[in-house]
Design goal:
heterodimer, A: about 280 residues, alpha/beta, Rossmann fold, 6-stranded mixed β-sheet, 10 helices, 11 strands, about 25% strand, globular, B: about 240 residues, mainly alpha, Methane Monooxygenase Hydroxylase, Chain G, domain 1, about 75% helix
Chain lengths: ~280, ~240
């Protein structure tokens, strides 16, 4: 007779089955600004060709590309700064909350209060720190009293991360601050009129790494409440601060997507060549 | 993806140096694996000792690659395809280092079975499995050098063959051990050797996944059945009654 003495498996260890990992879903952001078929001409020369781009609210969109690619031109279209340049013509539409900002009903001065701008070189007014910030709210009639205005100035400086450094010298000249402080003053000035969108044209290119880090950290905070569009020549900066990246080349929008995708696995060779520093 | 040259030539040179180090490391790993199986099959203590020695060169290369990768990330802040090349080199070097260790382990077992007098027929399955793993390793390293994702994918699929062979070898060695307890010593060493080869196949598969990611920027999404079932195979012992 044959009996089974042991019929138990000697090894029963099973490799653990990995749990399916849920892909993190980017929080859906509303479209704040929508450009459609935007062309820009300086006289005879066309600088931008049929650019269509959605810009999301409460996030940072970076515009990258080599010099002369049209990224700054595009940025300036977003608050009609190009209107001030003689011979400049813009076609196509750019909507802010669904309203075309190039419509005749839109007042460019009011628009620029809603879409503020920070420039490459800090450009404080040659006035006191306080006046630098109070100027905008005053002309836009945002403060009804001195106390109101004081509050706006303090809040704007706080939001720009500058208040602690300058609270004892609000009456000193803004031009006496360091480069990084001046740039944060300009950001405070832009914030003071309650904008919805902040445009930044290479805001850190004149700053040292510490001042740059402060601005970048500030952008992270500001994006909780504002729609931010930044033009930068630093790929690393674009990769660090933005959620969406748009690559411009020779007046065309070449590729646009989630920043992580653009910097790890761009769809097009031209984007890859640019961000990795190769000949195109 | 075809890429153009870097504007900064030294960056291009560093990437190419990294590539060459992986190629060199891969060549050494192939050698260690091939020799360890020959040593086991031929019960050749000299070859086994030389093979164990050779693994050190692989370990050194791994350390060099890791150092270079860290320096490149810090100094170049690589993006896109460059970043993937650098990360791929780091990951592949880890797999190759493990392959070297597993090969060394087989060579050590070759030393342990030198005196054994069992028939060489016992070795055939293991030798065949080793050849298969060596073929996979060569193929996946070529896929890396050529940046050929399709070739890498084929290696990835054929890992099943190694797993299947390991399963059958496991059963075969069990029968030898049941047949004659004097075979147990040798067969246990061979079983561990076979397990090492199976693990080498898994590392070749990892490299295939890395090559695919390097080329396409996304992981392989297909499902491949896990086919090493030996860990859940019941062993029925029979006793005459």
């Amino acid at each position: 007779m044959e009996a089974k003495v042991a019929d138990q498996p000697i090894f029963q260890m099973q490799a653990p089955v990995p749990e399916p990992v849920a892909t993190p879903v980017m929080e859906a952001h509303a479209i704040k600004m929508a450009a459609r078929d935007v062309c820009v001409f300086y006289g005879e020369k066309q600088a931008l060709f049929d650019v269509s781009l959605d810009i999301r609210d409460r996030s940072v969109t970076a515009l990258i590309g080599p010099s002369g690619c049209g990224k700054s031109t595009f940025l300036r279209c977003l608050n009609r700064m190009n209107d001030t340049i003689e011979g400049c013509r813009v076609t196509g539409t750019i909507e802010l909350d669904g309203v075309n900002i190039y419509s005749s009903r839109v007042d460019p001065v009011q628009l620029r209060a809603r879409v503020g701008m920070v420039f490459q070189k800090p450009n404080p007014f040659p006035k006191s720190i306080y006046e630098n910030i109070a100027y905008g709210p005053r002309i836009h009639g945002l403060a009804s009293s001195k106390a109101d205005l004081d509050e706006i100035v303090v809040n704007s400086l706080k939001k720009a991360g500058l208040f602690e450094e300058v609270k004892d010298r609000l009456n000193e000249s803004g031009t006496g601050l360091s480069g990084g402080q001046q740039q944060r003053l300009c950001i405070a000035r832009a914030i003071s009129v309650n904008p919805e969108v902040i445009l930044m044209d290479e805001p850190c290119s004149a700053l040292d790494p510490i001042a740059t880090a402060r601005i970048e950290s500030l952008m992270e905070e500001l994006k909780q409440n504002y729609c931010i569009v930044i033009v930068t020549h630093s790929m690393q900066q674009a990769a660090r601060v933005s959620q969406r990246t748009a690559f411009f080349h020779m007046g065309f929008l070449v590729e646009e997507g989630d920043t992580t995708d653009v910097f790890t696995n761009p769809k097009l060779e031209r984007t890859q060549d640019y961000i990795t520093g190769r000949f195109g | 993806m075809d890429t153009h040259e870097h504007i900064v030539r030294s960056y291009e040179e560093e990437l190419s140096a990294l590539n060459n180090k992986i190629a060199k490391m891969g060549g050494l790993a192939e050698q260690v694996l091939g020799q360890s199986i020959d040593a086991l099959e031929g019960r050749d203590p000299d070859l086994a000792a030389a093979t164990i020695q050779q693994d050190e060169a692989i370990d050194l290369l791994e350390a060099e690659i890791e150092e270079q990768v860290i320096a490149m990330i810090a100094r170049r802040q690589p993006m896109a395809y460059d970043l993937r090349q650098i990360m791929a080199a780091l990951r592949i070097s880890t797999d190759l280092e493990r392959i070297g260790d597993l090969g060394k382990n087989i060579a050590k077992r070759a030393l342990a079975v030198v005196g054994e007098q069992q028939p060489k027929q016992l070795m055939l399955g293991l030798k065949h499995m080793g050849e298969l793993a060596l073929g996979q390793l060569k193929e996946v390293l070529d896929a890396y050098i050529e940046r050929d994702a399709d070739r890498a994918l084929r290696v990835w699929y054929t890992d099943e063959d190694i797993d299947a062979m390991y399963n059958s070898l496991f059963r075969e060695l069990l029968t030898y051990m049941m047949e004659d307890p004097r075979n147990i010593g040798l067969c246990t060493h061979l079983l561990f050797g076979a397990k090492n080869i199976e693990r080498i196949g898994d590392h070749a598969t990892n490299i295939a996944e890395t090559v695919y990611f390097l080329v396409h920027g996304r992981p392989i999404t297909d499902q491949r059945p896990k086919s090493d079932t030996t860990s859940s195979t019941p062993v029925a012992l029979r006793s005459a009654g």
